[in-house]
Amino acid sequence: MRIGIDVDGVILDYEKVLRTYGDLYDFIELKKDGIVNRNEHYLKNRYDWTEEDRMNFINQYFMKLSKQAELMPGAKDVIHLLQKDGHELIVISARGITVEGMQDVAREKFEQENISFSKYYWKQEDKLEVAQKEKIDYMIDDNFDICKKLSESGIKTIYFRDKDMKKLENQNVIEVSNWGEIYRVIKNRK
């Protein structure tokens, strides 16, 4: 099978790190309680920040937090198991759109961990286009909007959902919360 995999919130625990420091920035630096939607993935929809607040956070924290993000538990082992089982794994990530160089941080981390993929697509605003071009059998992503768009376009989607994020239910979506579940889903769907 050809499996597309997002990086942040799926391979790297970047989203949790980002939300943690977003909350600290909001409360300590901005001196407010600006969370307007705890279940929202995007900073601009999660907080009542001005565009200046958001850009200051991005410029001050994105690269630093990118370097802090660790592998999700089990990611390395399951990636190796999937490759051993003969699956082709393709990174399809938006990483690098907002802050140039974040994709290099991920590549370095993958090298350090002895993880590699068949292909890499960085800075992807439209993952559907790449998924269709690559004839992806399953896409693993943690973003509600992306999973919704992919699944509604007929691509089987594994929604790596953090407990605080919105639920998504349709016939092409399977919800998981860890890499053990991802492996089980793929092994059972061959």
Properties at a glance:
6-stranded parallel β-sheet; 190 residues
Main β-sheet, spatial strand arrangement: 3-2-1-4-5-6
Q: Which class do the helix and strand fractions yield?
A: alpha/beta
Instruction: Give the biggest sheet.
Output: 6 strands, parallel
Q: Point out poorly predicted stretches.
A: none
When the domains are counted, the total is 2
CATH superfamily of the largest domain: HAD superfamily/HAD-like
- Helical content band: 40-55%
Arithmetic mean pLDDT = 93
Rough shape?
A: globular
- Output the CATH topology of the largest domain: Rossmann fold
Rg, rounded, reads 16 Å
Secondary structure tally: strands: 6
How big a fraction of the residues is strand?
5-15%
Question: How would you describe what is shown here?
Answer:
- The chain has 2 domains: 2-13 and 70-188, HAD superfamily/HAD-like (Rossmann fold), CATH 3.40.50.1000; 14-68, no CATH class.
- The protein is built from 8 helices and 6 strands; from the N terminus they run βααααβαβαβαββα.
- It has helices spanning 14-29, 43-46, 51-68, 75-84, 102-112, 127-133, 144-152, 179-188, and strands at 2-5, 88-92, 119-121, 138-141, 156-160, 173-176.
- Strands 3-2-1-4-5-6 form a 6-stranded parallel sheet, sandwiched between helices.
- The longest helix has 18 residues, at 51-68.
